[in-house]
Amino acid sequence: MLNAFEALVDKTQEPIVKIRVVGDMEDILITIQDNGPSLSPEVKAKFFDPFVVTNKSNGSGLGLYLVWESIIEAGGKIHSGVTPNGTLFSIRFPVNSQNP
């Protein structure tokens, strides 16, 4: 979510970050979408690579990598997408995961 807020550098529009959580007996889906600038396919392809910094000079490039690693370790999945209206991340966790 911090990355979403940091991406909203265009002060001509109101920054919006939408968070949605839905679930059923099988899994929980969390989506995070911002209305920041769309990113190139080259940047999107590197979202979860370690030490990749795309929009700030003081970052380590480990944030999204550590998020990805934590979600996978917990038995979940994360996907990213670039839309004309910003960036969208979808995180899915199984309800009955075998991982602690």
Report on the architecture of this protein:
The chain is built from three helices and four strands. The chain is an alpha+beta fold and 100 residues long. The protein has one domain (2-94): Heat Shock Protein 90. The chain has a four-stranded antiparallel beta sheet with strand order 1-2-4-3. The longest helix has 11 residues, at 63-73. The protein starts with a helix and ends in a 6-residue tail after the last strand. The mean pLDDT is 82.
List keywords for this structure.
single chain; 3 helices; alpha+beta; 100 residues; 4 strands; 31% strand; Heat Shock Protein 90
CATH structural architecture: 2-Layer Sandwich
CATH class: Alpha Beta
Helix content: 10-25%
Shape: globular
> Main β-sheet: number of strands, strand sense, barrel status?
4 strands, antiparallel
Number of helices: 3
Task: Could you tell me the CATH topology label.
Answer: Heat Shock Protein 90
- What is the total domain count? 1
CATH superfamily heading: Histidine kinase-like ATPase, C-terminal domain
Low-confidence stretches: none
What's the short story on this structure?
The chain has helices at residues 2-7, 41-44, 63-73, and strands at 17-23, 27-34, 77-83, 86-94. It has three helices and four strands, in the order αββααββ. With 100 residues, the chain is an alpha+beta fold.
List the helices and strands and how they pair.
Layout: H1 2-7, E1 17-23, E2 27-34, H2 41-44, H3 63-73, E3 77-83, E4 86-94
Antiparallel strand pairs: 1-2, 2-4, 3-4
